[in-house]
What does this fold into?
Amino acid sequence: MRYCTNCGHQLGVGRYCTNCGARVPVAPTDVPARPDDYPTNMRLGPLPAIPTPDAPSDPRPAVGPEPSTARYPLYADSPSTGPADSVDADEEPTASYAVAPAGRRRLALPWVIGFVALALVALVGGGLLLLDSSDDDPAGGAERAARADGGDDERDDGQDADGRDAVPDDALVPDDVEVPAVAPASVDEDGRPVTYKAANMLDADPRTCWRMPGDGSGAVLSFSFDEPVTITEVGLINGYAKVDPPHDWYDGNRRITTVTWVFDDGTEVSQELADDDALQTVPVDEVETTSVELRIVEVSAPGTGPDARDFTAISDVELSGS
It folds into this structure.
């Protein structure tokens, strides 16, 4: 162990005494076992007091400066880690935040995919609801009429009027048809446009029809030919004879119950019609004419249930002769 030669304080690492600040000799001596063992030139003894005017009457021995309690910061002193180094009570502590590891962060991609899937489901469902309005729902039909109606020679199923199904050999096809009104177009269960033009009565297809809004009683339909023809039989399907499961449009629309056929010479033929979606005909004494009027005398009330529609319809008209 080593001790300061000035104040006797135990020395640490450094060039100065940490107690009195005296410089440590280059080769300090070890502490002797007894004070008498100090070397003569190293021992300090009391000096005789020499009275002076400025000196006190009882001076202290001149043994160097009085030990000080002050400490000098030396590199050997290590910072204390005790309570004195803690944050002052009046000092606001610094906030700290824990950062989650990158592997635990939730990714946004699954949520985005989920929202996109829900949006697609809602879009498809809304489209199906719109299309489920059925081919007899006139909502929006006026907007689609111009697009769907391709002319009197074009059928809704793409078949030409010249390629009619099961047309009798003696069937006569008028050159022109005039009707009092036409119901707006709509769409069928598959979303295809459906029109109700007058030419649908002449295509021998009961799945197509002409129809007009409301009660058609008193309406007159006119069929004309470019040359005189001889009529021997007339008939019609007196409603919309289309079955589109689960819909039966014959029962849903109005059906015609009584008509009168009128020819150029004034001949009139009355026909009573049954509640049947088959073609119903009536014979006519041979009459030559260039036009045939079909006067609707009486119709039924609209059907009931979800298929009920307030329209008067005719699926087919058949004029036979030569």
